[in-house]
Specification:
This protein has 170 residues and is an alpha+beta fold. The protein is built from 2 helices and 10 strands, in the order βββββββββαβα. The longest helix is centred in the last third of the chain and has 17 residues.
Length: 170
């Protein structure tokens, strides 16, 4: 049986492959060689993913990975679940590794098309300021635990998020 890969776009909707579900205390990552999800690490006590985190399939960015995406959705998903989502913005950021090599590593922000709670959100400017702050804090502290720095540059709109996907298409 031949399996087709999900396309990044279908109209205004992107597909996101969930690696790590919302509230997870573990970080999962897709292993291209094994073609499976593996446990990458356990987060320290008190840390958890604020929303579903994954990647846009068939994309490749400057950092060598697919485009990262954080999807606002209520309810439970699982690693490997494909979510149809509407882009609402992007957190533009620079990440530095342990050797201080700087690379752009933006995070798309999207809303699941199945969401009832977030369905009316069309732009990141509509998100609660506490939510924006907690998303930035999560990525900053998560990277610090990995020995990297994560510096948010700015929040940008859905148009910039769409452009990011298109410029990173494989």
């Amino acid at each position: 049986m031949k399996v087709r890969h999900a396309q990044p776009y279908k109209g205004d909707i992107i597909h996101v492959v969930v690696e790590t579900p919302q509230y997870s205390l573990e970080k999962y990552a897709y292993d291209r060689d094994l073609k499976a999800f593996s446990l990458k690490k356990t987060l320290p006590a008190g840390s958890a993913f604020p929303f579903d985190f994954g990647f846009v399939p068939n994309t490749l960015c400057d950092d060598g990975d697919p485009v990262d995406a954080l999807v606002l959705v209520e309810g439970e998903t699982y690693p490997g679940c494909i979510l149809a989502a509407r882009l609402v913005g992007v957190l533009e950021a620079v990440e530095a590794d342990k050797n201080n090599k700087q690379v752009r590593n933006d995070r798309l922000i999207a809303v699941s098309v199945e969401s009832q709670l977030y369905k009316n959100i069309t732009d990141v400017k509509e998100l609660d300021k506490k939510m924006i702050h907690s998303i930035e804090d999560f990525f900053t502290s998560y990277n610090k635990q990995e020995g990297r720095t994560f510096k948010p540059l700015k929040w940008n709109n859905a148009k910039a998020a769409h452009k990011k996907v298109l410029t990173c298409k494989e």
